[in-house]
Structures are given as structure tokens and as C-alpha cells.
Amino acid sequence: MAVPAAAFAQEQVAIEEVVVVGQYIPDEKRATSEISSVVDADAMSLTGDSDIAVALTRLPGISPDSSGKYVVVRGLSERYTSTLLNGTELSSPDPLKRSVPLDIFPTSLISSVLVQKTYSAEYPGAFGGGVVDIRTKAVPDEAFLTLGVSTGVNTESTFKKGLQYDGSGTDWLGFDNGRRSLPKLIADNPTLEGYSPEEIERAGESFPNVWSLDYEPNRPDLDVKASAGKAWDTEDGSFGFIVALDYGSELRNKNGIRKVYSASDATESGLEATQGNYAPDQCEEFGLPGEDCGVRITNWNIDLNMFGSFGWQINDQHAVKLTSVLLRSSQQQVEVKQGGNNSRDIANYTRLDWKERQLWSNALTGEHSFNLFGGDNDMELEWFASLAKAKRDVPLRRTYEYFYDDIDGVFRLSDRTDGNQTAFGAMNDESKNIGFNFLQPAYLGDMIVDFKGGASYVKKDRVSDYKRYGFDLSNVENTELREMIPEIIFGSVNIDPNGIILKEFIDASDRFEADFENKGGFVQADAQVTETLRVSGGVRYEDSVQTVLTTDRTTKDPILVTQRLDTFLPSATITWEFAENLQVRLGASETVNRPDSRELSPARFVREDGRTEEGNPYLEPATIRSYDARFEWYIGAGESVTAGLFYKEIDNPIEYTLKQFGDGELDTMANAEKAELKGIELEVEKILGQWGDREIFVKANGSYIDSESTRTVENFGEITNLVGRLQGQSKWLANLQVGFEDFDRGEKLNVIVNYIGKRIYRLGSTSRPDLIEKPPLELNFVYGRDVDLWGQTFALTFKAKNLLNESPERTQGGEIAEMYDEGRTFTVGVSTTF
Known about the structure:
mainly beta, globular, Plug_dom, membrane, TonB-dependent receptor
């Protein structure tokens, strides 16, 4: 289409009209050959989201998972989504996931995020729901210094009593100062084998005597941000850098109930909470105050993130950039639950936890332009080399249980072998990634074709280890001692070869080593066949080997799992602009989804939500065939309407399910036989008009997703539904944003509504229905405005989250299984740029 430039006149000099011919592309969503969505820094600022995990849920077809750390794209869980940082793969600091938790990426460090929902050969073949490519901020055009601070309160947490314990003096920074470390005497000989009774006594006394809780008012939220950048020109080219620091601290209470059901003929629902009832009615049955029973959790979340980008623009044809990102997310978690089950009348269970997650990524990239074949079309070459290290430390995780004696009316510390436990977990993951991509424009007759190609090599190594210890009280005949607080019970005077004895409970499968190696390459062509028809297609080849080495917990024999995958992955997309600013896209592809190394190990882990998870060494890779169609109408700048259809066929999909574990249950995973997934996505972005200088907008999207998974008894055991919806998939998703922006005064207002339909959290088994999760309906409010004070411009913000005060809940057979109060959150902040 032709875009006329304005005619200018100055004094008596006239400049003739200039006509520039080109395609009008308002945003990246339209420019790309694939079906994608993009959220940039301005959009994230408008919604007031603090991390990427939340920001992406504003896009159609995307919802957060139950943890809030990952996203579910088109009904497929986080395992089907690959995460890239500036185009390169990352390691995960979570031993339970291959996917990178998106909540550790603060929006303050991000320039934009691309979510591509159709596969193209330039991306890794591990694709199901989408590719999330996080782009960090680039080198600045001019020097700047930005400082910002915000604080907030939560109606269920701030200034209210929370659960804490005596950790270390550096916890506020997210680092343990060594107080929780495994004592050297035990680290030198973790199994305690060969130690004399006296040495075992010293080992037991070497543990920090930290057990009891503190009930203290929770402090308000605090977030501090600082970033700076500069650029300058020299004879050797242009140089520039950006550095940024982001610190955050928040305390949150989660108070509620939890029930674990078993099948029963004695109740109308067919379920009875005999395997765990942590709710008021259990205490009332024994004459105790109802409020004494339930679940109380306090999470202290500390984030410390650093970012640096250093660029050298040598000339118009060559540039090199070094990007380094350090992301840390630490959590002190204290859980107290009181209730009972079929083998214990009333029990008080306490867990003290400290977790440190860290991701350190360093990438050196280059962009070059060469004229290899003459003419006007230069080849563009990009190369990259990255080293990413991820780790997760869980030092001094403590659990212990007191039982209620209804005859004497007292609680006594359990003398069972699992009545108290001290555990230490560590996971280290290293990922190396090198490769290159090229783009060569060419003419085939009158047709413009972009030829693309590239190759990459990825090597990942992971070591995970978990050590467990407990104090044996079987020699303690003094029942009054077990009525004391743990610091007295486990005092050095009572740890003795004839009294309380330290024992190790290390499971043979608690340690595993894994590595993953993947060699890949692709070729792709993107052709403007006619003025209105664009065709893109390619194929990717991947040769991968994944191994996991662990030990069988029963036989103590080594288990070596090796998975090889040698495959070609085709993809194609057709875009037809059948009228001005109206186009249709069609896409098809075949991709894979590999089990994670952790999932292939039978080791058991306690997740952050307190649930136990066990791997499955018999998992197989899944194969996904995807088909897409989307209608797009680009009305004008910032205005569009899209409507899409998608359909997926999955062989061997991996799903979470429940498994009997002692008196309760644990989570595990298995391959279903096949699954089908289909859905509709609608999105509208429209500027409604002006209110003074304010531009009023509305952004709305909705998705309907349906699926059917076919499972087998061989893989899932006595599962409740052999045919049913995919685990983790919601049928309905919807987002609505209504507000205004005044760009001259820096004023913005946004009212945000987010709806996520109920979904299967875990597949039911042994005659128990599926465990259903119902996320809360969220109503949020964001307002911001620039204010001039003392010759300086300050950006003021106010955010209100969960105004409806809804809480997430999980149900089973219509009965409440878990429910917590989350409360409303109010945040105010100020920032300025020098």
C-alpha cells in the first residue's frame, strides 16, 4: 500500500511530495510469518505485572499453572512449553521441572516476550503449546539512571501474625550464611557408616538446634529497582551498556483446610476424609477448639536479580553483545497443619523450609551482514554461545509431629521413625549452547524468498542429591520429655548412645545424575509468492540422547535410563492477505516432547506446596501434530481483531496422576495412549475514543479448549477415568482490560479481569474422583501518573490485586480438598529517571 509523506514548506522553499511504497506493519504479531503473540515492556507496565509468569496470562489461550510459576499454553501444561532467553535455551533451577519457572523473571529487566503458538524449524523441536522467547533490554541510545521503590500490604498477611523461625542473619538477602549447612562431620560420611557411638553422638549434636516457630507480625512488601546505562561513540565503533538490580521481599499467609479422601460407602458423596482431615471439624470431634485444626503456611519470598548487557556496534555490518543475567528466588516456608486420619486421632505436623533457586546465564552473541553473492541482498548471520548454570538448595528442611493424647489431654512428640526428619537437598544443572543462524534474501524470478538455516548444539548436565536424617526416640522411656518443645527434647544432654540417637534414612534413589545432548539443524524458506500470498516452510533435524542414572530403592541395583531420539520435524505456514489489512494464516507442524530427567528418576521429592512427587523411569517421549488457522484484521495502529482455531493430536502424552503412598497419596506421571486437543481463540484490541487528552482502550480475549485423553490401566493403574480431559486443561479462559492512557502526562488507568475455568489438578485413582482445581476470578486495578517535583519527573503507581477476594480451591467429588484465604493486595510505588 502507498503511504504519502507530508509535504513541508518553510519560508518560500517547497519540497515536493515523496511517496514511500511498503507494507504497513503495526506490530510484530503481524510481521512474523507464524501465529504468535507479543507482550512488550509498555504492555507489562500497563497491567502492573511484576513477573513474566503473570504478564503472559493476559494473552489469549494462556493461563498460569497451579503454582503460578509456569504457564499453560492452549491447555497444555508447562512441560509442553519451551523457554528461551534471547533465543537460547536455559536450564531450570527447579529439580522437578525441565521448564524454566517464569516467576523469577522480573518485568523490569525485560523489553518484550514473544509467544509463538505455531512451530517453525528455527526453534528447538521440544514444542507442544508454544515457544516463550524472553528478550532482555538492549544497549541504550543515551545515558540514564532509573531508581524505583514500592511497598504493599496484603489483607490476610501484612501486620498479621505469621509463622517464622530463627534462620540466618543474611536471609533478608536470600542467602543462608551457612547456619543451615550440612555439618562437616556428617558431610564427610553422609551414611554415618563406620562411625562409633560417640561419633554419631557428636554428629547429632552438630545439627543446629532450631525447631520451634516464632509468631511475628508480617512486614509490608518491599521492592527496590535500579538500572543505569550509557552509550558512546569512538573511532572503533559504538559502545554501550545496561546494568540493573531488582530486589523484592514479601510475606504471605496461607490459612485454610486440607482433606485427603478415600472411597467410602458411609457417605453420600462416596468419599470420606479418613486419610487426612486438617479442618476444624476434626478438632471439634475431640473437644478441642475448631480453630486449632487446619493448615497454616507463611511464605517469605525474597528475590534478588541482576542484569548486564554490554554491546559493541563495530559498524553498520557487525555487532557483538554480551548478556549476563543472574536471577535468584529464595523462600522461607513454615507450615503447621493439625488434624487427623485413620491411624492417628489428632496430630500436629510442622515443617520448616528454606529454598534457594538461582539461574545464571551468560551469552555472547554476534550479528553480521555480508554481501556474498553480489547484488543488493546481504546475508545476515547470527551466532551465539551461552553458558547457563542453575541450582536449587534446600538446606535443613525440618519436619516433626506431635500426637494428641486425649486421655491425658497433652501433645507428645512422635516416637515413630518418621516422627522427625532433617533433610538436605541440592541440585546443580549446567547447560552449554552454541550455534548460528543465517538469512539470505534472494529473488526467484519476481518472487522474494528469504532462505534461512542454522545449526545448534546443546549439552546439559544435572546432579541432584537428597539426604535425610532422623532422631530415634525408641530408647526414651520418659514420656514427659516428649511433651517438651523440640529444643529441649533434642538438646545435647539428651542426644546420647543410650538416649536419642541420630540415624540416616537416605533412600537409594535420592541421588540421580542426568545428561542431555542434542545436535540440531534446520533449513527454512519464507517466500512472498504473490503480493498477497506468503508461504513459509522448513524442516528441523534433531539427534538427541538423554540418560538418567539412579538406584532402585528396593533392590539397591543401579537404574540407567537411556532415551535416544533421531527425528525430522517439518513445519509450514501460509499467510493470505485477501484484502487490505485482512489476512488468514494456516499452519501445520510435527514436534516432540521429551520426559524430563527428573521425571525419569524414581526419586521422591517434596515440592514447594508440600506434596510428594515420584518419577517414572518408563516414560516415553510424546509426538505432537499441530494444525492452526487464524483470521487477522489490523484496523489501525494498536487496533486488531483475531480469531483462531487449533487442533492437536498427541501420541504418548505425559500426565500427572495420584498414587497411594502410605496413609496418603503422592503425585506421579505416566504416558497416556493418545490425546486430542482443539480450541478457539478470540482477541480484540480497540481504541474507543478520546476523553480529553486520554486515549480510551479495551483489550479482550477469550478461549474455548476441549480435549480427550485415552489412558491405559497398564500405565495408570486403577485410574478413575480412562477417557477424559487432559490433566491441567481449562475449558474456558478470558481476559478483559478497560482503561485509558495519556502519553503527554504519563497517566494510565487499567481495570483488569482474568477468568480461568476449573481444571483437573491430578487424575483420580482407587475409586476416587479427579482432584479438580478452581482458580479464583481476579479483578485488578492499576493507576499511574507522572508528577513533576523539584525539577524532576516522578512516576507514581498504585495497584490493587484480587479485589474480589476470591481464593483458589481444590475439590474431589464435590467435597473440598484444599482451600486457602489469599486476601487483597495493595501496592504503591515511585520511580524516576535521571
